[in-house]
User: Fold these one by one.
Assistant:
Number 1:
Amino acid sequence: MDAPVIDLLQLYPRDMNIYGDWGNVLVLRKRLQLRGYEVRLHEYNPGDSFPEQVDLIVGGGGQDSGQNKIQADLLGLGGRLKELADDGVPMLAICGLYQLFGHRFTTHTGEVITGIGLLDAETVGGPTRLIGNTVLESAEFGTVIGYENHSGLTTLGPDLTPFGTVTKGQGNNGQDGTEGARYRHVIASYLHGSLLPKNPAVADYLVRHAAERRYGTFNDVALEVPYEAAARSDAAARPR
């Protein structure tokens, strides 16, 4: 009997993949494979044909120049991404793509990079970078651990749920205690380093919803990865 297939798409790996975001793709693929799924990995860069079948989408961070390179293409793709999000496709958008999933990113020089409005959020470039190990508390995922490195200050709309509440670090803007954003099965965050190796609960949320959307069920086999707990404990204990 053939293994069930999950189609995993990495958005803009050529221009938006500077913070170890490839590690998120590797974790998702491995955790699916360990549960008996075959993973078809797709890449989408400006000008490529968008795959017909997409079950799970991951996108990473990039410099302002990278955001400029993909802006026009992303705006053209925005309608399709919003349709997929509304249809329940899980997505992980990190840093630069998090910003461009919102309405706009206004850089520190005043340049406006228009986003796709999938998230009700806006970002402005701040005077300093927010850098360091970061810990969040999430009602769904528990303690989430990562590393932030961004100068963009993001404000969420009144009805948009944050990814978590900051207990160590600066989060979305260093002021309101929020980090990241949630919309349906879309998770957006400034946390990288990569995010998913240290946060298996978040990775399993994404793969579970990808499988359930496509097949109606998920082979929810418990995975024993002994070094995960040690990695989380070590990362959480590090100073800012």
Number 2:
Amino acid sequence: MKLYYSPGACSQSVHIVLHEAGLPFEPVLASTKTHQLADGTDYYTINPNGYVPLLELDDGRKLTEVAAIMQYIADQVPDRRLAPPNGEFERYRLQQWLSFVSSELHKTFSPLFNPATPEATKATAQERLLKRLGYVDRELEGRLYLLAERFSVADAYLFVVSGWAVAKNIDISGFANLRAFRDRVAERPSVKAALTTEGFLK
């Protein structure tokens, strides 16, 4: 398999999950600024949307979108229990969290990464993010992870996206449960491996 990624982007969550799964894969850097690979290949010829992540299987099939890719990976290694089995209620709880992180957090961060976004729009986005992160913080009370005691693919996604708050100077110091969650996830070998590959750790 190949994972097309950009350092620090949402593809980092897939990067983490691939390490959690123990599946062999090749990380391929795809710049979200130049939309080119290291060898000069136009990334749009691989993914017409131009964004990451994209997972290319050994037979050439491709998957995009974080939630779909991570659930696919989890289902390849059910013994790792990175996602509850299909059909169980907890699987829908997982999908609930994946949807929340995608629509309420991930997309709300988007204006903050665009230098053309007006300051008023950024302020509105930050206010909304603090409300949503506050909800997550309350939901994490008494839990190690989003699905209680076991790490899941949703935790990888939340870890990466909530980290953007730090990058954008959004103060999450008041969210003790979220901060403890982030500290806990940061210690996982899969996270350290992904961050090392992406150049955030030595």
